[in-house]
Every structure is written in structure tokens, then in C-alpha cells.
Amino acid sequence: AVNRDNSGQDGISGQQQAVKTAPDFTLQSLDGQSLHLAEQRGRVVVLNFWATWCSPCVQEMPLFQQFAQRYPSELVVVGVNLQENLDTVQAFVTKIGVSYPIVLDENGAVSELFRVVGLPDTFIIDQEGVIRKRHIGSLSWDQLDAYLIQLGVGE
Length: 155
What we know:
- The protein is α/β, with parallel strands linked by helices.
- It contains four helices and nine strands.
- The chain has helices at residues 55-70, 86-96, 109-113, 141-150, and strands at residues 2-4, 10-12, 26-28, 34-36, 44-50, 75-82, 102-105, 121-125, 131-136.
- The strands form three sheets. A five-stranded mixed beta sheet has the order 7-6-5-8-9. The protein has a two-stranded antiparallel sheet with strand order 1-2. Strands 3-4 form a two-stranded antiparallel ribbon.
- The longest helix is centred in the middle third of the chain and has 16 residues, at 55-70.
């Protein structure tokens, strides 16, 4: 369900309904570029909220990397780091070899918009910007593959 909060921006509640458009946002990536969620339309988006101190988050990052490399024209993976500084995140991402876009939610506003309360939290967003699945906790290869096949990725 899409809710309006006091700021007038859309947010996601815990309730499941058929159609819920992902709240739009713009965040800065590690390379200093702005990533605008709405500009990703046309491809499926795997939006993953994570932190370096979250071991289940770290364990699923190679999975996201493999899917991003396997389906570059159909899929974009975006890692939203929750409230850590640029130097910490950059060093970590370089060390583990992730090349998909990582953006910094420095003040937690985007996490709040998506009603993230625990990590990892992953949203599968279709080509039109509609959230099709929310997965709280670690994702397995089979789970992510099944979610993506439902949206025509990897068929």
C-alpha cells in the first residue's frame, strides 16, 4: 500500500496490495553521481537496503553482483547503504568487488520512505516502477531467480 506521510511523499506500508508504485528518490552514488530511481524505468530494479556491519547483507552481495552482470540490459541492482559514511562504504565495496551502483542514504530518509526497519530489505521493482515483491532478510539464488523470472528477466 502506498501511504502519504506528513511530508506528502509516498511511502510503503507493510500491507501487501496488488499495485504499489515505488517512491521516487535521488541519492548520490559512490562515484559522486546522482542516481534517480525513476530514471531506471524500463528495466527491473533490485533495490537492496544494506550496511557493512550487517553480515546477512554482506553475504548476499555476491549474488546481486552475479545477477547484475548476467542481465545488464534487463536488470539494475541498486544497493542503498544505510547511514554510513562515504569512506567506510567505498573501502568496503572496493574490498569485496561490487560494481553495481551503491548509493548513500546518509540521513535515512529513503529507508524511512520505504519503511525499512531491519536489514537486509530488498524490493523487486518492475519495468513500470511498481513494487512487485518485498523480501526481508537474506535472499537465496533460487528466490531471486524466481522473483526475476516472474518479471521476464532470465526466461
